[in-house]
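TL;DR need structure tokens for one chain.
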Amino acid sequence: MLSVATINVSQENSMESVRATMERQTARRTRTDVTQMIESLFFSVKLAKDLSARCKGRALQLTDDEMQNIAQDLENALQNIYDDLGRIPASAFASNAYMDVLIKSQSMRGYSEADIPMNVTGSRPRRPFRDYDTPKLADFLQGMYHESHEYGGQIFNTLPEVAEYIEPVYDAFFCPLTNEIMTDPVTIQSGVTCDRRAIQEYIEKFPDSSEPFCCPVTKMPMQSKTVMSNASLKSVIEEWTMRNEAMRVRIARTALSLSTADTMVLEALHELKLLAKLRGKNRELMHKIGVTKFLARLLDNHSAQIQCDALELLCLLAEDEEGRDIIGKTKAIARTIKLLSSNTSVERHAAISFLLELSKSHLLLENIGSTPGIILILTTMKINNSDDPIASEKAGAVLKNLEKCTKNIKYMAESGYLEPLQSHLVDGSEETQMEMVSFLSELVQEQELTIDITRSTSEILIKMAHSCNPMFRKAAFDVLVQLSLHRPNSKMLVDVGAVPVMIEELFIRKVDDEPVNSMASAATVLANIVESGIDPDTTMVNKEGHVLTSKYSIYNFVHMLKCFMPDDLNLSIIRVLLALTELPKPLATVVSVIRENHRGHAIVELMSSPMEALSLAATRLLITLSPHIGHTIAERLCKTQGQPRKLVKSISHAGRITERQAAMAMLLAKLPYRNTSLNVALVREGAMPAILSAIKEVQNAAARSSRHAVLYMEGLVGALVRLTATLYSQEVLKVAMDHNLALVLTELLSGPAGSDEVQRLAAVGLENLSFLSIKLSQPPPDELLSKKNNILKLLKDSKAHRNKKSSHQQNVCLVHRGVCSPASTFCLLEAGAVEGLLGCLENDNVRVVEAALGALCTLLDERVDVEKSVAALSELDAARRVLSALRQHRQNVLWQKCFCVVEKLLEHGDDRCVREVTGDRVLPTALVSAFHRGDASTKQAAESILRRLHKMPDYSATYVSMEF
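>> reply
TL;DR here they are.
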């Protein structure tokens, strides 16, 4: 390929030639109806000025910013008209007619002759276009879309045509080979000017230097392939290009602000996008004349296409830092949020692309992140990758840029996107780590978020908690306290070695100038970890091999319980002990340590703490320990001054039932029943009336609505039953008689609030009371014996007088062989409890059935008239119910009690009762099964009945030997 030589021609000579050509071409393009054009221009400008003045005057009185926007648009339109008119070619002023009209129009409007621009040969400089009037550009631009709308005989179809009309292009700018405006004009030997690229392609067609070639335009032969750069023309073209593009920007801006047609707005946006891509000066001009601000308004347009085009143009304008800063001062970011949630992928992609460009600016990061809802939408978009992979990828890129502002990391965490916070916490500087920990603490404390932490995050937090920096330690402990509440986090903390650190904080670490809050926090973290379900038998607490269930650990936990320690520390230690006592081995260790070191008094004292959570936890621990050291706890309660009174007061019902009330009542129900000291102390403090009053309140529907009502009721009934275990105390016996305790328990067998446990406890209480009936029953007067010889009348009288409390009428009980009443002798027949106890035999809960049978067996004791008792039971269909219970349940204790009742029915029952028992088909099978698999007592009871049924030989019979 031949090289092409380039020779620069003289700037001065070329400019003169180009200028002459431009003058001739401009003269041909100038309108002939000059008078009409000038009059129209000045008239339109006058109207625009008046409208602008009126809009500004009214805008000052309005709160809506729409009027101010209109006024600004008019100002911008006037500026465009002035600038455009100022670009009319100078040669047009050479016309005398043009000058006459101009002078006349200017003088009519107050302009002096000095304000009139001169032609290119004059000495007066050309003034800015804003000093002249022009046709109203709104009508000018809108009219070009209608074929019948002409301006001076000129019809426009596109916005570039309007720009070319105002800023005409010269023929000399066009390359004769490509018919396009030249970018690098060069002159060849024939004198023709072409674009460098076009002429080079033509010359390359003649590679042989000996081969002649002709000028592509004039066809004249040329001897040289050398081309000369036409720098002057190139400079003029560049100048014209700049003016033309600036004019196109202004025209498009005017079209945006004044047009109501979507098609024109779309064309203006398309024109602006092309110009924005060409050079940075066009983008600068767009910012300057208000295009950027207007684009933000277009994001609320009804047309989706306009919204997308506006976003694309905003993306182009946001490519430089200055443009992003200008966009950030508009409402574009806030208006983009709704487009992110659009159902159309095109709108979503345009919106996310725009935000991606903006997020590259450090100055806008906080502005973007603080916009309400934007980070939540971005995180949702990123997480839902399958819905829109493209949008998800770009959303991730935006979030990655937003991470550079620490506040945005917090916003992301609030939206559920925790990866940035945790990554900065792990890899950031000390200052960043401190800030991230503060964010994390704020999130988990104030907003109570459930956060799953990674292993690396857990390691950093443990490291910070173990450091010597007090600020780091406090921040880390605050976070760990909340994070450890989530069970997966607790197991993660165990894996990274959190337990030894917490144990060291509790047992070993002692810093004189550091507050004890870190110890309390460590105890709370440890309590959360132990309650999460880990295996305490394998959880190491130090390098010596001790585990959580070791005596070393439990001993230290128990000895940390002191009344003068902070309540939150005591609470956490008790929580640890409660969690450990759920397992048999650590429970035995806890009991052993407390018994050996007499530490039960501290737990009893903490039960009276004003902190409800601590009091509740201490009460629960005492309930857990009561089966093992119940008497010790009871004695400590009695010896603690005012404690029985506090117990009685705490179980009294006042308003809605609390968990603490239920726990206190349950403690009384779980402590050993036969502790006379505690029972007498409770009676002296008025426990009986307080408990009965509370039971009546619970039986109301309003009280039962509490979720603690069942537990509370069971505790109250248990407290009543514990009093029946020490009736040998005269004080307890008297209060039981005074409050008719047998009748109270009878009602609880089938009361409205009677759960299975309540029924069981009531049956146990009735059994305890019934044991005293034979002792308390007094021999009747002789005159009443004849009236009470019928057992059926006894049953009728007992029903008729069940609820009567008259002390003047005496009822003779043939079972107890004396005068009985529910209040004075606790007689089950007089109290009507037998029917309720028999009803309990149909319960599915074996413990309820067992307790009911225990109470019924007291009526078959050898000290009472068993025959009369069996007759009374037979009348109430006792045989069928007992056999049904025997058929349903197969426990040793239950078998033994059932067989006791059955044997008495067979021995003392009438013929009907015996037939009913012997006719049961299941009884023999149950007896054989009990004989095979029962314990010694059960086997003996079954054998006795089988012998009575002639199923086994009676070895006790006496045989007489006779000799024949």
